[in-house]
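Bug #77: duplicate submission created two jobs. Keeping one. Sequence:
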Amino acid sequence: MTYDSNKERETRLYASSNDRPSSNENGDSDRNDCVQIHADHADEAAQHCHPSGHIDGQRDGYGVGKLFVTLLVLITLLCASAGTLLPTLSYAASTSETITGTKTLVYDDANLLTTQQKQEITEMANQYGALRQTDFVVYTTNNDSNLDVVKLTEDLYDNKAFGYNQKYGSAAILTLDMRNRDIYLAGFGEAEQLLDDSRLDKIRDYITSDLSSGNYTTAFEKYIQRSYEYMGYRAGVNPDNWLFKFWFQAALAILVGVIIVWIMAYRSGGRVTVDRATYEDASASSLLDHYDRYINTTVTKQKIEKSSSSSGGGGGGGTSSGGHSHSGSRGSF
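Kept job's structure:
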């Protein structure tokens, strides 16, 4: 082979046995491949190349890109699986289901609603009721007989035989006693379990301010929507727990993904094995002195407030004169 005198270094690579010389004076014919690098530049080549043949910059860029792709995949998978933490929603029908008939579910004996408002609430109650197979009933009365609001609710259920697809089936009833300014929420049938006393208390607290302000339409709509929502959770589960909220689960999934990729990136580099103990002479090191100095004392006082509610509260479930048990929540507005 002819060597170029103008080159500072020379490299000869024989990739296969067909290209390498058959023999030489030193007996190196058994080599599969040979790389000869000029001695003057061996150190320079070692600084720019890994044993694998990759350049440092290319290898680092590939590693960062791979970690970035891994992060995106983990976040996508965790967000997609976040819904598994949510309690199973027991939809009884598809949201595309068409309401074939309008059932009377609003009994506005106190004349709090206009004809248009009554129609809108009735349609809303029928729509949401079809999805839960539950009658969502609104009952207002001037209570001329001055009966207890619980008795008024129980008698209405016994007389009307509410139930989405059967008599005395699943039903939720909101009763307003305008004479005594009382409100009562009750759940019958399946709604007795899915709208228990605790959940009905939450709904009552949610709508009381609107009732006190005379925003009856808004209060009735909120009652139907919140009752529908709560019935989508298993009995015994707090539906307002923030652990069940999608925003929290999505944020948690992203956080977990970031932590995992950060750990991967941290471990991808070389570990530092040198610490303080490496250079410390334990035999010549010791604690010279220590002291304690009093600074101050801090006393914190907190007044424990007694729970109070302007809407009142209490009541609970019971059994109607017709023998139908129910959950309940009672208050004032």
